[in-house]
Specification:
Chain lengths: ~180, ~180
DNA sequence: ACCTGAACACCGTTCAAGT
DNA sequence: ACCTGAACACCGTTCAAGT
C-alpha cells in the first residue's frame, strides 16, 4: 500500500470524497458527520479534504450540486407523469439523503457560498414552476406569485421528512388551488 | 463578591440564563452561540447551566417556549387586525431572534425533545388557522388541509428572513387563494 | 502539485469537590 | 441543594514538512 494515493486520478479522489460525504451526511447529519469520518470513507486523511475543498460548507455544496445534477434531468425526463408525480420525485431525491435542506437554511447566515447556492436553487425551482403554470394557461403575473408559494410548500415537505403519508395529497391540494392539473 | 450567587433567587437565575441564551442565539446563531458566552451573559459558569438545563437543546426549547408564550397572547389580542397582519406579527416575533426555526428543523433528528416541541408548535399554529378558516365560512375538511399548506408557507417565510420585502404580499396571496379575507 | 503528522483553539459535557 | 475548577473527548481547520 502506497503512502499516498498519487496513482489514483485526482478527479476520482475528489469524487470519492464527495460520495463519502454524501453517505455520511445521509446516515448522520451535517453536524454529526465529522471530517474524520468522511475522510475515512474516502480513504484519505482529514487534511487531504482541505486540498480539494475550502471547508465543510464547500463540501456540502459539492454534495448538493451533485444531487441536483442527477435529479433534475430525471425530473425533466418524466414527460408523461403528472406535475404532482414530478414534484414528488424531486422531493424524494432531495430529502432522502438526510435533512440537508434544513442544514442549508440553518447555515445560510454563516456561509455566503451556501446562501448563493440556496438562492440559485430557489430561482431554478421557481423557473420550472412558472413554466409549468404558464403551460396550464395561468397568466404570467399570477404564475410568478403562485410559484413562490409552491416553493415554500415544497420546501416545507422537504423539511418535514417524517410526514410522508399525506405528502402526495398535500401537493395535489396546492396544485389544485393554483389551477395546475 | 460572593463565590456563588446563592443569594439570588433560583427562578431569577434560571430566567437570566434563558434571557442570555435568547440574546446570544439572536446575534450569533445556535451553533456559534457557545455555552461559555451564554453563561457569561448570565453571570454564571458554563457548568452551572447544566444544573438548570439538561443540555443545549433543552435550553433552546426554553428560549422558544418563552418567545411563544410572549407572542401568542399578543397575536390573540389583535382582534381588529386582519389575518395577514396577525400572521405578520407572529412571523416577525419568531424570526427576528436569529433563524432559530431553521435550527429546530436541522436538529429534530438529534433531539426527541426538540421534535416534540416542533410537533406541538405545528399543531398549535394549525389549530389557530383552522379556527380562522372556519370563521370565514370554509368547510371544516377544507379548512384542515388549507391550514397545513398555510403552515408551510408561514414556515417558509420564517426560514427566509432575507426576503422581507414581499412578505405581506405573499401572505395576502396565500390567504386569498384559500378564501380567507 | 499533492498529501500527511502533529498541533491549535475551541466546543459541549461530566464529575469530584466545595459550600 | 446549588455551584465551581478542572478535565475529557471531540471538533474543524492550519501549517510546516515530506514526496
Amino acid at each position: 500500500m502506497p503512502r499516498n494515493n498519487r496513482d489514483i486520478d485526482q478527479k476520482e479522489k475528489k469524487q470519492a470524497i464527495i460520495e463519502s460525504a454524501g453517505s455520511v451526511f445521509a446516515e448522520k447529519d451535517f453536524d454529526s458527520a465529522s471530517m474524520a469520518a468522511i475522510a475515512k470513507g474516502a480513504g484519505v486523511t482529514p487534511n487531504t479534504i482541505y486540498w480539494y475543498f475550502e471547508n465543510k460548507d464547500d463540501l456540502l455544496i459539492a454534495v448538493l450540486n451533485q444531487q441536483m445534477s442527477k435529479v433534475m434531468p430525471e425530473v425533466m425526463a418524466m414527460r408523461t407523469a403528472s406535475p404532482t408525480q414530478r414534484i414528488l420525485h424531486m422531493i424524494d431525491a432531495v430529502e432522502s439523503p438526510g435533512a440537508l435542506m434544513n442544514t442549508v437554511h440553518a447555515r445560510i447566515s454563516r456561509s455566503d457560498a451556501l446562501r448563493t447556492w440556496h438562492d440559485n436553487f430557489h430561482r431554478m425551482i421557481e423557473q420550472i414552476l412558472v413554466f409549468e403554470a404558464t403551460q396550464h394557461g395561468i397568466e404570467p403575473a399570477k404564475a410568478v406569485s403562485y410559484s413562490r408559494l409552491l416553493v415554500y410548500v415544497i420546501e416545507g415537505l422537504i423539511s418535514h421528512p417524517h410526514e410522508t403519508e399525506s405528502r402526495e395529497e398535500t401537493i395535489d391540494q396546492m396544485l389544485a388551488l393554483v389551477g395546475i392539473q
